[in-house]
């Protein structure tokens, strides 16, 4: 089947500055191909800003605005209004931000933009840490993961950004992964077709920060979904939860074993993580409808 990448010129060009095997670049490439050329990007300091490149160079074929780390959603709101004032209401405004700039430093501006139901698509490229500054922990880093600022393992759990934004009652909030490409493309298309505030949280396994093999990013992306650590679901209008992948064919231990950030984790801690993932899954099952053609487990 012909893909969007084959149909349209790539919005992200080759020759950019991502690490070899980077899933963030692959994710951005697919998201932008699906959105098309009539798009403007807001990219705060993050790996994605490095990948997009410093002025006057750019690896993207669309206009890019780089605001401060805390202000992406506010900058995107202003850009949206300027475009609307010019009669360009069909131009998509997309934010491509990291988890540090979203879960932590940009959360206030993000919550306000969601509350105002600004007409923007906010994509969080969630690599679970402050990666381009040396892999420090963020509030998206999962329990027990070692980072440069939590060398003994993070003592607290990962925040649930998608549920937090859904609780604002926004038109659309969903998780997605380039490891499940058809689902990702469908969600980008769906978000593009809606008006108002839309969030996509993309899990982006980080070759460097997670300690993966150079070709291990996609496997980690798939295992994260398959063990239930990163369930694929979508929430419409803050209330209608749909589970898009209702199976859990593998234990969390398979996923952890791919990553050096969990090296030396004790069997008791692995069991604790499994129990936390089970708990999150049960929470989701209480809220969610199965996707069409699927039964809930
Ligand atoms: C207010 C503020 N604090 C710190 C920084 C330095 N800084 C630039 S990028 C970055 C890491 C951002 O992490 P994340 O948003 O997760 O993006 P990633 O690098 O992981 O892609 C930091 C701490 C900054 N630019 N602004
Ligand atoms: S640090 Fe991680 S997310 Fe950033 S460019 Fe390298 S592999 Fe990609
Ligand atoms: Mg990050």
Automatic annotation (TrEMBL):
PANTHER family: 2-OXOACID OXIDOREDUCTASE (FERREDOXIN), PYRUVATE SYNTHASE SUBUNIT PORB
SUPFAM superfamilies found in the cross-reference section: Thiamin diphosphate-binding fold (THDP-binding) (SSF52518)
Keyword Zinc: no
Region (Disordered): 135-157
Listed name of the protein: Pyruvate synthase subunit beta
Biased composition (Polar residues): 135-153
Keyword set, alphabetical order: Oxidoreductase, Pyruvate
Domain named Thiamine pyrophosphate enzyme TPP-binding: residues: 65-200
InterPro entries named among the record's database cross-references: PorB-like, THDP-binding, TPP_enzyme_TPP-bd
Gene3D superfamilies, sorted: 3.40.50.970
BP terms from Gene Ontology: small molecule metabolic process
Lineage of the organism: Bacteria, Pseudomonadati, Pseudomonadota, Betaproteobacteria, Burkholderiales
Gene Ontology molecular function: oxidoreductase activity; thiamine pyrophosphate binding
UniProt keyword 4Fe-4S present: no
């Amino acid at each position: 089947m012909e893909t969007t990448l084959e149909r349209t010129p790539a919005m992200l060009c080759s020759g950019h500055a991502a690490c070899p095997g980077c899933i963030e670049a692959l994710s951005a490439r697919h998201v932008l191909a699906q959105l098309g050329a009539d798009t403007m990007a807001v990219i705060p300091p993050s790996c994605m800003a490095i990948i997009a490149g410093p002025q006057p160079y750019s690896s993207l074929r669309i206009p890019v605005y780089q605001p401060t780390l805390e202000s992406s959603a506010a900058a995107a709101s202003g850009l949206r209004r300027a475009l609307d004032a010019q009669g360009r209401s069909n131009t998509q405004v997309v934010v491509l931000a990291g988890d540090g700039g979203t879960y932590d430093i940009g959360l206030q501006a993000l919550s306000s933009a969601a509350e105002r139901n600004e007409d923007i698509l906010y994509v969080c490229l969630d690599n679970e840490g402050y990666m381009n500054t040396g892999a420090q922990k963020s509030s998206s880093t999962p329990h027990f993961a070692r980072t440069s600022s939590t060398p003994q393992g993070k003592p607290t759990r990962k925040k649930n950004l998608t549920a937090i934004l859904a609780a604002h009652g926004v038109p659309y909030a969903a998780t997605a992964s380039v490891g499940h490409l058809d689902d990702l493309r469908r969600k980008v298309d769906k978000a593009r077709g809606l008006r108002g505030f839309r969030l996509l949280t993309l899990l982006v396994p980080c070759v460097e920060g997670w300690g993966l093999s150079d070709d291990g990013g996609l496997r980690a992306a798939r295992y994260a979904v398959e063990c239930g650590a990163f369930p694929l679901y979508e929430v419409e209008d803050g209330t209608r939860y749909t589970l898009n992948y209702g199976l859990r064919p593998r234990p969390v231990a398979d996923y952890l074993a791919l990553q050096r950030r969990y090296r030396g984790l004790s069997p008791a801690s692995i069991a604790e993580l499994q129990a936390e993932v089970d708990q999150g899954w049960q929470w989701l099952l209480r809220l969610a409808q199965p996707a069409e053609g699927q039964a809930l487990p």
